Task: structure prediction
Amino acid sequence: MRLRLTVPVELFAIGLAFLLGMLVLFLTGYPPFSALWALFRGAFGTRNAIGQTLTQATPILFTSLAFLLAFRSGIFNIGIEGQFLIGAFTAALFGISFRGLPFPLHAILALFSGGFGGAVYALFPALLKVYLGAHEVITTMMLSYVALYLTSYFVNYPLKAPGWVAQTELVAPSARLPRILPPTQLSLAFPIALGLAFLVLWFLERTVPGFSIRAVGANPEASENRGISVRKYQILAFVLSGFIAGVGGGGEILGVHGRFVDGFSPGYGWDGIAVSLVGRLHPLGCIFASLLFGMLRAGGMTMTRVTKVPLDLSLIIQALVILLVAAPVLIEQLLTRRRKPQKSEV
Amino acid sequence: MSLSQIINLSLFQAQLRMATPILLAALGGLLCERVGVVNIGLEGIMLTSAFFGVLVTYFTSSPLLGFLGGLASGFLWGLVIAVLTVRFFGNQIVVGTGVNVFGLGLSAFLSQKIWGSRGASDAVSGFAPLRSDLLARLPYLGPVLNEHTFLVYLAIALVFVLHFFLFATPWGLRLRAVGENPQAADTAGINVFRYKTLGVVAGSLVASLGGVFLSLGHLNFFAWGMTSGRGFIGLAAMIFGKWTPLGCLLSSLLFGFADALQMRLQALGVLPSQIILLIPYLVTILVLSGFVGRAVPPARYEPYRKE
Result:
């Protein structure tokens, strides 16, 4: 597994993905340049646009940090979407109940309960993986569907607020995260996510458990021989990953929506995977990559409104970035035009 | 409501029908894994081929051409995945994730463009179910096996063809050898890259049959994300089936039953749909963790680099 990539590879991958995205637009009869222009304007053009970009980047930064932490221990937590939803749901519940708690305390506890929900939801696949050998890619994927339908059931039936929209009641004002760039929806969740990126960096680089997680991911056999329990640290990384995803979900509810709305996540959990990879599985890289993907989401909405290009173009570009980043050798060869090191003898 | 409203022969007929896409995904995953490539992009491959099956049928009014269009998209995905993972040593899980996201994005994008809705396409004419009067006279088994589209029978036939191919022909032996021990296979003069590519492309093709089944043999239109995790459930069926075609058939029938039961209960409206929809996913998790024991895959999932 290659973790060391050079900067130009990702930049080249992103550039190439945008070009291919424009090709898709051209082939389907949309104007590629004005669509891209609308996208950039919607992402940076005005103060509101920038606020939108940062708002969209926030949950993605959380989920990318979550993916990264598990990945560093050798775990593919592709079920972040599920942990994100469960975290959002528990944070909403906590924010609705316990009315009467004072402001910062209520919000902080609600955010933590979101993290707790995500952590517990990640504990299941962690234990199934470590003790029963159930592949985490499949179990976390299945659990994402479970989380989606389960939360949907609760907000459609027992916890539905009056009205025709499937959503819970509003959380108490004391549980809300304050907006920091009105009138945009940008909330305190954004600086929290930024701080968390540095915290994750410090944890991985400067603490013993962080080191052990990296050791387990880099070489499980050698770690086990040196007395570092692979099981223990994979479970720890998995649960921490779920915790971060859950906090991200909570931040989205307490900062943006104020309540759990059915289907509120357009797939922030999946975005996190791509962002993490583009960010070279490094917390600081995740910051930059989440800004890029936040731009795609925020600008994509403007693009759709102005040029009628379907929003899913952002998803296509995102997928292209993932595919191109997945095989750095491909891009390295495109860039250097080196003679192929691996001649297949066909 | 009585139990016979839920459990009757038509439930088992639906079980066989719903097992088909999972079986095809499992067989596709099996071919890839036997050559040492974990293909978690099955979901995206199936979704893409389900989409192109409908798209081509919509423009040509011929489900047969749609079928070929769906297969062509599976073939292309197979090539892309093989090039990225085998030729350029890309991370298999990452590539698969990219395929899944791309399938979801492209199908929704084009669906919006062509039918003005990212939710569902217009209806097209799919494959008609085949009916045999002789089979219909068979007690119990007849009604279960009768009146399926040809893809159901094709999937079952593939099980036996693949079993024979993998375990009784020299090509099958080479395919397995390339996954189990690429160094030794290379030393024995087998072209490792060629067989790995062959396995991945063939596997993706088989999985795309499952996608075409969903959109042309089951629903007769394309719906957003209509594979709904069946690619992943197929992988679970493959693991539960211990990486053999016959095993895949049996475990797919189990998951097919969960899916058929889910649809039946939903039609009867006994519980909120969200709760009933959970059944196949919960069954998958339970099966993967409870019954399998520690699964030992037959291949090493690493890119092969020649010394």
Q: What stands out?
A: Chain B has a mean pLDDT of 91. The radius of gyration of chain B is 19 Å. Residues 192-218 of chain B form the longest helix (27 residues). Chain B touches chain A through 54 residues (CB under 8 Å).
